[in-house]
Each structure stands twice: as structure tokens, then as C-alpha cells.
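User: Here's a chain of 159 residues. Predict its fold as C-alpha cells.
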Amino acid sequence: MRCPFCDHPENRVVDSRKARDGSAIRRRRECDGCDRRFTTYERVEEIFPQIIKSDGSREDYDRVKALRGIRLACSKRPISTAELDEVLDRVERRMLDLGEREVESDWLGGAITSELRKIDPIAYIRFASVYRGFSDIEQFVQELRKLDSETSGDNGGED
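Assistant: Prediction complete.
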């Protein structure tokens, strides 16, 4: 493990503990070169399915890319980084539970949208507007009306 600050190849672990739900180990390390500390996470490497894009192309699942989209939707909302990680952890678990080698990007976007809907309606509508590609204001208004009727209990809160 190279130091992210000085690129020195040697460091030592100064503390280890379980992270999140116990699915990873958090390690505090200290660089032998510059004495700065940094954190690493050790987790079982799981093989995620490839994502089939709407144009038919395929790409490897990228947690950083998914998290970037979620963070953008949650910008300036009262949602912690830990909550965002939990959202993505749940989506990833659902994706792995499918047991498929390929998953449509539509499924991934829908799973993220579903999780965001549970924690913050503004983040949900922001993400949905990009994921669903609203092309005009009427589509946006229809989604807001649907969300409003679900939160007021008109249809039991589900699509």
C-alpha cells in the first residue's frame, strides 16, 4: 500500500476496526516516509455485473460514478455521507442478489431512485429528473404530482 501523500511504499497499521455493517475493516495507517496518517478499507472483492447502457454498450459497474450521481442529487440536502454510502450499499447488495452477469442501467437507476425516495423527496426528484431524462416541464410536474399523492397516502406509497 503506497502512501497517498508521498507515494512511499512502506507504512504500518496503527488501528483496525470493523467499518459500517461489518462488511469491511477500517485500517488507520501511518506512512514510514512522511509520518502522515491515512485510512484504508479492506473488504471482500465482489464481482459486480456489467451495466448495459441504453445504447446497448456495456461497461463495468463503477461505485465512484454511481456515488457521484447520488451526491449531485443530494447536494445541499441534509443527508450525511454515511447515509449516501448506505444507499449505495443497499443498491449493490440488491444487484449482487440478482445473480446476473449483466444488469440494465435502467434497473440500476430505478434501484437508486427507489432508495433516494425513502430518505429525501428533493434528492429523489433531482436524481429521477436526470435518470428518467425528463424532456419537458410537464414530465417533471407529473412526477411531482405522483410523489405528492404518494406522500399524502392516496395510493399507499407505492407505484
